[in-house]
């Protein structure tokens, strides 16, 4: 009976055949232990010399790393294994013999591993990170589908910046100028006016010359947008959504979290509601912690975000940032027009901002004023202004960066390990 490693629990004490690769092995004179993977998981195959023919045992002893094979044996429970099962091998059939596999069990440098990313993905740790990423994606669709959101796909090629910044990848669109999208938000606002509650999930691009552990050139964003919702409504959605995906990872990825040696108590604590602190109070907190260089009106860097997060045991919202350091579309606070109705959600443990969100300007005249202040003209932005002309309503939205969220929930240090093929400042290969 053919099966997969992830399904062996359904075949205890039965003989099965699994298509797999040899991840590693060790052997003695009378027994060989084969560490096998098939994409769904990892399992140990035990080949006992006395229980197989000589050809099979010699094949097991001499098989090279990453050789592909069909392996047949009996599934047995094994309490010593983190997986809980192992395979008592009866037969081996080599599909393709691998030779000189470059990633050996010894330590390798990061650049070497990144150059071999197409192979590094096969390792147990990288496999665990990608499985956690996959569960976060699955839980994302589940959460928004269960709560009445419609998935809308904004364009990747756009005629203008979403936030008025210059960190864009420029390209030619036949005879016109075009850019790779840095956010689908403006288009999601249009979709919200048609469908009420929407979300997108897709790639975004930032031409930001940064080498920090939190930055990628190409990354994925989940961007919900909601009509008839104010800033407070949006914050509730954000904390419920983040709590939902965290609890999903805890439920579905225990084996992967164990592989990564993640402290699951940190994830168990991610449950709504989350604490909130205003930008004003965040400045005061930083001053108290000795950050005398930060002044009101300046944006927070990674050390500032980490210092703020250390004061809380859950993700924390920083709200009401100064208008002059935020995007043109954010709605001013009704009692303090110098700040806007926005929030960044800062993850604990030094992982920084994972969500940026705000209530959007819904007043036509104020948006026209913002257009003048930011020199936004032409067809590229006219359609966005029209959303305020024809049935404008209060609306809010946010964007969650997938890779930072995966890094935080996995407990890995650098976002380059949280995307299958990372694009970094000096890396476009493989």
Automatic annotation (TrEMBL):
It is an enzyme of class 6 (ligase). Its EC number is 6.1.1.22. One of its GO terms (biological process) is asparaginyl-tRNA aminoacylation. One of its GO terms (cellular component) is cytoplasm. It catalyses: tRNA(Asn) + L-asparagine + ATP = L-asparaginyl-tRNA(Asn) + AMP + diphosphate + H(+). It comes from the Bacteria. Belongs to the class-II aminoacyl-tRNA synthetase family. Gene3D superfamilies: Bira Bifunctional Protein, Domain 2 (3.30.930.10), Nucleic acid-binding proteins (2.40.50.140). This is Asparagine--tRNA ligase. NCBIfam families: asnS (TIGR00457), PRK03932.1 (NF003037), PRK05159.1 (NF003483). The lineage of its organism: Bacteria, Bacillati, Bacillota, Bacilli, Bacillales. CDD domains: AsnRS_cyto_like_N, AsxRS_core.
């Amino acid at each position: 009976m053919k099966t997969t490693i992830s399904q062996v629990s359904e075949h205890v004490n039965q003989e099965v055949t699994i298509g797999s690769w040899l991840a590693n092995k060790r052997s003695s004179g009378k027994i060989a232990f084969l560490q096998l993977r098939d994409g769904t998981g990892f399992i140990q195959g035990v080949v006992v010399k006395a229980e197989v023919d000589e050809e099979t045992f010699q094949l097991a002893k001499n098989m090279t790393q990453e050789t592909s094979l069909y392996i047949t044996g009996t599934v047995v429970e094994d309490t010593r294994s983190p997986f809980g099962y192992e395979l008592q091998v009866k037969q081996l059939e080599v599909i393709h013999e691998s030779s000189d596999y470059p990633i050996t069990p010894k330590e390798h440098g990061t650049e070497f591993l990144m150059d071999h990313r197409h192979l590094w993905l096969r390792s147990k740790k990288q496999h665990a990170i990608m499985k956690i990423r996959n569960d976060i994606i699955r839980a994302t669709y589940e959460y928004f589908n269960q709560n009445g959101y419609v998935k809308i796909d904004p364009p990747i090629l756009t005629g203008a910046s979403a936030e008025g910044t210059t960190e864009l990848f420029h390209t030619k669109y036949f005879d016109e100028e075009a850019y790779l999208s840095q956010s689908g938000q403006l288009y999601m606002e249009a979709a919200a006016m048609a469908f009420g509650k929407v979300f997108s999930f897709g790639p975004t691009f930032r031409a930001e010359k940064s080498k920090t552990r939190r930055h990628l050139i190409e990354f994925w964003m989940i961007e919900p947008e909601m009509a008839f919702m104010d800033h407070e409504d949006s914050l509730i959605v954000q904390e419920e959504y983040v709590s939902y995906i965290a609890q999903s990872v805890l439920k579905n990825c225990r084996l992967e979290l164990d592989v990564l040696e993640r402290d699951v108590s940190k994830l168990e604590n991610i449950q709504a509601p989350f604490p909130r602190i205003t930008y004003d109070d965040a400045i005061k907190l930083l001053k108290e912690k000795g950050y005398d260089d930060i002044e009101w009106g300046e944006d927070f860097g990674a050390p500032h975000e980490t210092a703020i997060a250390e004061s809380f045991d859950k993700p924390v919202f920083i709200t009401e940032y100064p208008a002059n350091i935020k995007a043109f579309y954010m709605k001013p606070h009704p009692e303090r027009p110098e700040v806007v109705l926005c929030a960044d959600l800062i993850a604990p443990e030094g992982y920084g901002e994972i969500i940026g969100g705000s209530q959007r300007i819904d007043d036509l005249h104020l948006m026209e004023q913002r257009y003048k202040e930011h020199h936004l003209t032409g067809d590229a932005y006219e359609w966005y202004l029209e959303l305020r002309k024809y049935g404008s309503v209060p609306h809010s939205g946010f964007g969650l960066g997938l890779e930072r969220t995966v890094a935080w929930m996995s407990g890995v240090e650098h976002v380059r390990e949280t995307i299958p093929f990372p694009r970094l400042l000096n890396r476009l290969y493989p």
